[in-house]
Amino acid sequence: MWAAIRYRRLQALVLLALSALITACTVLAPLYDRAMQQALTRLSVDSAPASATAVQLRSLSRFRFGVGSPALQPASLDQLAGLLPAADRSWFEPRIDGTSLLVTRADLTERSPVGVLQWRAGACEHVSWLAGGCPSRDGDIAVTAADRKNFGLKVGSTVSVVEQPAVEQQGTLPTVALRVTGIYRQTPAPYWDDQVLAGLSGSVDTQPPYRPAHDTWLTAPATFTARGWIDPVNSVSYNLDRGTADVDRMLRAGAMVTDIADRSAVEVDDLGQSINPTDAVLADVQSRLPEIGSTIDRGRRQALVTVPLLMIQLGLLALFVLGLTLGAAVEQRRPEVAAARLRGAGRGGGRRLVLSELLPVVLVGVPVGTAVGLGLATVARRTVLDGAAPYELGTGFWLAVAGAALLLTALTWAAAAAGTRDGISALLRTVPTRQRGWGLGAVDAVVIAAAGTAVLAFATGSLTGPLAAAAPALLALIAGLLLAYLIVPVATWLGRRLTARGAYAGALALLAVARRPATRRVVTVVTVASALLVFSTYAVSVGGRNRELAAERDNGAPMVADLTGTNVASAVQALAGAGGGHATPVVRLTGDKSFRTTLAVDPDAFGRVALLPDADPAAVPWSQLRVPTGRRLGLTGNAISLVVTPDRFRVANDSAAHLQLQLLDALGEQKNIDLGPIPSTGEPVTLRAGVPCQAGCTVVQFAVSAYYGTGYSGRLTISAVRVAGGRTDLPGTAGDWRAGVADDNRVDASTGASGTLVLRMSNDGRDQLGLASRWFPAALPALIVGPGIAPAGARSAGTVLGNTLNGGQLNLAGIGALPRAPAVDGPAAVVDLGLLQHWGSRAGRTARMQAWFDTEDPAVLGQVRTALQRAGIEISGVRRVSDVRHSYDSAVPAWSLQLGVLAAAAGLLLAALVLVLLVASTWRRRSRDLACLGLTGVPRRGLSRVAVGEQLPVVLLAVLVGAGCGLLGAVLALPAVPLFAEPRDAATLDLSAPWGSVLVVLLAALLVLGLVAWLCGRTVAARARLSRVREVL
Amino acid sequence: MTGLPVRTERLVHIYHTEGHDVAALSGVDLEVRSGELVGLLGPSGAGKSTLLSLLGGMFRPSAGKIFLGDTELSGLAERDLDDLRATTVSMMLQGAARNLVPYRNPEQNVAFAQRWTRRRRSDLPAPREVLTAVGLADHAHVPLTALPAGQLQLAAVAVALAAGPGLLLADEPTSQLDHAARDTVLQAIDRANRELGTTVLLVTHDPAVAQRLPRTVTIRDGKIGGEGRLGEEYAVVTADGFLPLPAHTLPSLPPGTLVRVRHVPEGFLLEVEDPAAGGSP
Predict the structure, then answer these.
(1) Do B116 and A423 touch (CB under 8 A)?
(2) How far apart are CA A400 and CA A312, in angstroms?
(3) Cβ neighbours of B158 in A, within 8 Å
(4) Is the ipTM of this complex over 0.95?
(5) DSSP secondary-structure letter at B196?
(6) How much is the pTM?
């Protein structure tokens, strides 16, 4: 056996390499698949906020079933904790207990602030103390710095509170005295399960009675246990032990949480009464573990398709090449088998002879390939998967090793059996019988038909999904087989023509191409390998490009920081000039479905900072977002009086019409002040009303209020406007006001004598009209994304509704369109932040302040953070476009595509091995043939050209054809190959060809395979010595 | 080992090729006694190698029978033919290389040949003994690529005799050899015939070789055309009564010549009828 291996050592090496490659691919598939699942799990868990991977169990309100129904007994802490199966508790860290309820200040009557009073076990260890210390006794509380500022609370202050149950109680609830023992700042930590204790202080509810809020007050457990509150909420949190979370556990965790939610869910009858068993523990279960589990499962199922699909293509190619190699090896041994058969070996003996030489070599490739597969998996874990997957050798790995060994053994046995079953005389024949002429074999015809059917199905959309990744290989198979058969007649014809012209080197080379059966195998293998290489490169480039675009779209800017607080003006001022001008303020306003997301920005800076991959920033009319306005008409004081002089003012039906003044107070809330009835006589009348403008108000408009359908007309002169305890810019001049117009109805103003304002009105009563301050544009200019409106100025221009900073409504007028707004998915509008602040500068619950940066430089972030902190604003979170990109790169589709690159590189290696193998198997015969040519007078240089010409042009042609198939296959397949874990709008994908990458890899393939073919030819020619003609062995 | 007798009856073999058939043997009746050394002569394409291949069981005749000892080959299964080749019949192909495994030395080749016999190693001669018998003991471990043509042929002979066969079928064992090498090879074969009792049929078209053989059979146009024994050439009457004339008489007796056979005291006399003379000799 060793003598035989040494005699054909190059062939043995090629066989070993192929066997190792097949084993490596077989072993790599389950290893990589499992590693991807673990990495996906690790990244999903690590990127999820703490609350998402926690299981938070909250007791239900005792009033859950309504006031008239029996009160529900809220679950205790131990009962809540018992909902989590004991067997699964090892997945989580020790539970965190808590109790909370809503309280409102009883010692303030003017819109008493409301907020949460909370005990959470271990809270004091997760805050930093700005003053005082941890509340430890009944009635002790700790408050935030914002509450200290907004409500004057300090260490030692006492407040009286009453509970604010979910259902209003009859009678007066007892007052509880609480004592401030500390001023705290929350330390961000997973402990908190993303609960943010601060940020609400001073913010006002948008619904009546417009109560302000205070931040969460921390207290000691005794505050709850020492007294009988009406409706406290108990909570138990289990935070996932992220260090031990693996894919199997995460898949089960989702089901476990769903089961808990089902067991603790309220079940009611048709009358809304509970039908839960009396001993049922009812709770509100909060956890995103089921979603995370679904995400992981989705990725796992995605990988189950894409990974085998890619590896199967490579595996089949490798098996094909191994089959060729084994066939060539067996054919080489036919004379020895004949010699054995002559001595009585029999068919079985001949087969055993061949197997004894080939099988050990092939099987040695199994441990080698296993080691290579393990190595590749390790490299992939550390590079592609960012080290996020642990080292595992599961059942799949061992099955793959055994399967590879079995498959290789079977293939070797089949090759040996097929090559040795002929009779002795056939075995002795050195020139195989050849079919006269040329034609497509039956098997090849079936393969072409099947592959062609599949490709047609992809092209027409009948076959979709990840199977589309097979399209390039199928196309290449068809092209390769057809090319292989067409080469024979074409090469023969060309060879004869060259012979007639006396170009013997080229003629001999072409005729050799035509007559060697190996040519067809080379063409097929090289075509398929080249197609795989180009397709993989194409897919990886396109995938990377789209992930980059998606990251830019989703993040909106290179870096985005979320800010705490509600004072937009302070944030804008703090950001002005901070960080060297690299940051710009953005307020993101979201509402219910009737509103589109609005981005309020500084247009000039935004155009520079924002990432707009779908539009040319220079072509966007940013400057049109700012329009000139009139001056602000202010009013400060607590009461207003003015003199109204009617002039031929009439109200239909002798009804009364009231003059109203609309104001925005300091918090941005709209106040309608009824100044009183408008006199119908010509005598001046003084109208008076209280105004809540001690902190300052902005005048919105004068309006006339009458019953619907009650018309009025005439003039009113407004003069002598006085404000008690303050000042005002009223009545202003005509230029400060914008007429109200609707059809034939109109209200406008002119400047009267001595600083008076004359209102001219004509209204049939069907429209509510007012004289609006020009400080407020009629419609805020906006760049519209999504279903839009006609541009401003169009006669039938409609408007879309937008949000003010504190959640109010206003009209937006489109001045241009954007295909997509940065960091917004869906309909959106971009408006000028400065103009929007005319409606108030305090951010409500639907507004989120952000700072957008044109750089990811941490130094810039640090400078901006410092500037914001001086204004009492903190950065609560930072997102970088590189992080978003990384999250897309760390997903199954990206990992699968990268595996495809590995498969393609292996395919190229296979193609090179085939070329080497053919030389290894036939060099003696070829060299002898060339030596015979040398005997006839062909010079050595000509022999070299013949030897190289036999392979090089064929190889180069096959590479080009394969590349074309890879390109075409990519065009067919890529729309169906998942580029993201979650499907994205097809309109946002850029699937155009990455010509740069494709050309580079094509050149590389031409160079590598061309070089191998050239070297092989030169090697054969170098051994074409004259002495070889007489060789008998 | 006792030499295996060989007998063929009306042996016919036709090669079927694309477009036409070629009758390589057209009814060969041959008898070779146990331990006999017979040469098969004839021009190229006469059917010599075909006859040898049929006797070796490499393929089956189109018609006729072959008896090796008491065994009739046409009824044997493939396995039985393998057994025959393993035990009693040994073929030596034309061209030494085709009989040898190129990466094994002569001793290893003999051992390789002995591997397939159905006998215990102890029942077989040692490979060195076989090589000694053919005069190649001194080159037992020399790589085949280093052996000259004559020694390569001796190696092939040794491989053919490795299992001590009852019948040795050698195809052109001395072709492309110089005189000395040729003599050496013939001596080896002759020694095997005498010492082992092996029946030997060897194909040659070398007259010098034929002269040294005790018996030669000439194959011509697929039939037995004549025999030579101890330097004398004989025509052989076929089973169906035909008498092929020696080749050298054919120019004088072209097809269609009338010949009268007369029984004379010395035997039989062939009188050629002169068609011009109206029948007189």
Answers:
(1) no
(2) 13
(3) none
(4) no
(5) I
(6) 0.74
